[in-house]
Write a structure and sequence with these properties.
The chain is α/β, with parallel strands linked by helices. It has helices at about 40-50, 55-75, 80-95, 100-115, 120-160, 190-195, 210-225, 235-240, 265-275, 295-300, 310, 365-370, 380; strands spanning about 1-5, 5, 10-15, 20-25, 35, 165-170, 200-205, 230, 245-250, 255, 260-265, 280-285, 290, 315, 325-330, 345, 355, 360. Helix 7 links the parallel strand 7 (about 200-205) and strand 8 (about 230).
Length: about 375
């Protein structure tokens, strides 16, 4: 996607073939900066401290982190059992950084399985490097296809409205290209429609506490020229009541094989409001975001609890809006305890449909199994 007219991705292997580049998402939208990761610890910090965030991006960065971990083990002169033991330890450290997003563990496991195919440490490094690139390319391709499958939904709404007024989409958090490698999940259909000449307008939830909507989604859409308006999180229901929303479209950090959706805190409330107002609520995701083990999202998906500082403090630009200087201020009364649940679970019954790289399906075990018969346990489950 575009940054000042230049095509960028969220993660890449640097020209030296020994390090990994990322965009420091904490600095956006006030400054665009890239950072270099040189080892597994750098990668763990980048994921844990949200220099990078979003399901697909976390998975792709973790895959690149496993390449760096393999290099570490090789440079330390390890081989055989010693190499594998150290690599497993580094893999566990990466997986522990963000427990809710399933893409992370999925990417790490793919790397471990790939490296297990050979014994030579140098060959393991080469395999890990090549797989990291493939995972990134795959993520971008899957998101592009999500856009292709979601485009007809927006086209249909546009024609139902008489082919004159824009399609109004409400989204939550950031499920754009910054949250993946390219295109994004929830934003892919928006970009596809915009590029096809279908007028769209996006209501962008600010998405407290880290404001990924206001800081990231709005910046992304602006870079691509997509009309949008930033709103406070609690304005969504009001807009729906007054006919100002045609479709709610979000991403997800983990979706069970039965259709329960874990996403940024507040998504469940948007789904409830959409149901009450008779509006479609769609979730976009690549297959890497499905959890093929967990059936009950409310009981089985771990909900990450992050530092209360993210709620009690907020940062922003000082002076001119394009200033890179930021300050952090307190929001909460001194001594008040703060809880920070990062995600919630939207039950499948509230989800109109799931948009994946293979098409659109019902948010049910059967619907998902029809798209992914080789992965879903539905036929054996008895559900």
């Amino acid at each position: 996607m575009l940054v000042e007219g230049i095509t960028r991705r969220t993660v890449w292997i640097e020209a030296d073939e020994e390090s990994v580049g990322i965009i420091d998402q904490r600095r956006l939208p006030f400054a665009f900066e890239t950072l270099t990761l040189r080892n597994a610890e750098d990668t763990a910090v980048a994921i844990r401290d949200m220099l990078v965030r979003g399901a697909g991006c976390i998975g792709a960065v973790a895959a690149h982190g496993m390449f760096l971990a393999a290099r570490e083990c090789h440079l330390a002169g390890l081989s055989g059992g010693g190499f594998n033991e150290r690599l497993t330890r580094l893999a566990e450290q990466l997986c522990a950084t963000r427990p809710t997003a399933v893409n992370l563990a999925w990417a790490v496991r793919r790397q471990l399985d790939e490296m297990a195919l050979v014994d030579d440490p140098h060959e393991k490094v080469i395999l890990a490097r090549d797989l990291a690139r493939r995972i990134a390319d795959e993520d971008a391709d899957f998101c592009r296809r999500i856009g292709e499958h979601g485009l007809p939904l927006l086209e249909k709404i546009f024609h139902q409205k008489g082919g004159k007024s824009p399609v109004n989409i409400l989204t939550h958090c950031n499920a754009g290209w910054l949250a993946f490698v390219d295109f994004g999940s929830a934003t892919a259909p928006l970009y596809a429609a915009h590029d096809a000449g279908i007028p769209v307008h996006v209501w962008v939830d600010e998405t407290r506490p880290r404001n990924q909507g206001a800081r990231l989604t709005a910046w992304e859409l602006g870079q691509h020229g997509v009309p949008h308006t930033v709103i406070v999180d609690n304005a969504g229901g009001h807009l729906m009541q007054h006919g100002l929303v045609d479709l709610v479209l979000t991403g997800t950090d983990r979706t069970t094989w039965t259709g329960d959706v874990a996403n940024k805190i507040g998504t469940y409330l948007k789904a409830l409001a959409a149901r009450d107002n008779g509006l479609p609520f769609y979730v976009a995701l690549p297959s890497s975001t499905f959890d093929w083990v967990t059936a009950d999202g409310l009981a089985g998906i771990p909900i990450e609890e992050r530092s209360g500082d993210e709620v009690s403090r907020v940062s922003g630009s000082v002076g001119e809006l394009d200033s890179a200087e930021e300050v952090e201020v307190n929001l909460v009364a001194k001594g008040s305890p703060v809880a920070n649940y990062a995600f919630d679970v939207t039950p499948a019954r509230l989800v109109t449909g799931l948009i994946s790289e293979r098409g659109i399906c019902a948010a049910t075990a059967r619907g998902i199994a029809e798209l992914y018969p080789e992965l879903s346990p539905w036929r054996e489950s008895g559900i």
